[in-house]
Design goal:
The complex is a heterodimer. Chain A is mainly β. Helix content of chain A is about 0%, strand content about 55%. Chain A is globular. In chain B, the strands form 2 sheets. In chain B, strands 2, 4, 5, 6, 9, 10 and 11 form a 7-stranded mixed β-sheet that branches. A 4-stranded antiparallel β-sheet of chain B has the order 1-3-8-7, with no helix packed on it. Chain B is globular. Chain B is mainly beta. The chains are: A mainly beta, B mainly beta.
Chain lengths: ~110, ~120
């Protein structure tokens, strides 16, 4: 049973526009959420995270929004750049302290078109 | 920033042999290390959690006798795939949690592509 779901396998966005990647989860016990960027044959690179007590976290071009009641989070990238083309994984943790491993979604392949 | 080195980056082995994958934290002490596996077009699936000096905790469905994990020091964890079979072919990734939680998540290694022929 997939506890973290990324329902869009791929997303194509024009350079300069906003990219919105979505993620849904089913386990209400998740306390901490993270977004990772991944290139083929490489490990994931951390992008941004959010605690369940917040509804928004911003870091440069990246903003993560959390809607706990809907069990939904999204990653906004604005403006999108060609270097943003990669697979983006949403991940969740039961604790914010890093004691447990992460539950990942299947990823969304973001393609930024020039 | 924190760096995790994982070796080898790829390995091809014959069915029935064992393969060892190393994961080292280069500039920090990793009290906890995690091992994941990713099949094509799938998510990263947590296999096991290891704490330095103690036995690893395996996720449901992961055979502990097949995937041996050793975390003998604060900077090194190893995953040994014993008696590998073609169905074990996958992308294996380790990640490490720093002793002081930085809130920035976990640092991942670059992964190991295992192909069993």
């Amino acid at each position: 049973d997939q506890q973290v779901k990324q329902n869009s396998p791929s997303l194509s966005v024009q350079e300069g526009r906003i990219s919105i990647l979505n993620c849904d989860y089913t386990n209400s016990m998740f306390d901490y959420f993270l977004w990772y960027k991944k290139y083929p044959a490489e490990g994931p690179t951390f992008l941004i995270s959010i605690s369940s007590i917040k509804d928004k976290n911003e870091d440069g071009r990246f903003t993560v929004f959390l809607n706990k009641s809907a069990k939904h989070l999204s990653l906004h990238i604005v403006p999108s750049q060609p270097g943003d083309s990669a697979v983006y994984f949403c991940a969740a943790s039961l604790t914010g302290g890093g004691a447990d491993g992460l539950t990942f979604g299947k990823g969304t392949h973001l393609i930024i078109q020039p | 920033g924190a760096v995790v080195s994982q070796h080898p980056s790829w390995v091809i082995c014959k069915s029935g042999t064992s393969v060892k994958i190393e994961c080292r934290s280069l500039d920090f002490q990793a009290t906890t290390m995690f091992w994941y596996r990713q099949f094509p077009k799938q998510s990263l699936m947590l296999m096991a959690t290891s704490n330095e000096g103690s036995k690893a905790t395996y996720e449901q469905g992961v055979e502990k006798d097949k995937f041996l994990i050793n975390h003998a020091s604060l900077t090194l964890s190893t995953l040994t795939v014993t008696s590998a079979h073609p169905e074990d072919s996958s992308f294996y990734i380790c990640s490490a949690r720093q002793a002081i939680w930085a809130g920035s998540g976990y640092t991942f290694g670059s992964g190991t592509r295992l192909t069993v022929v």
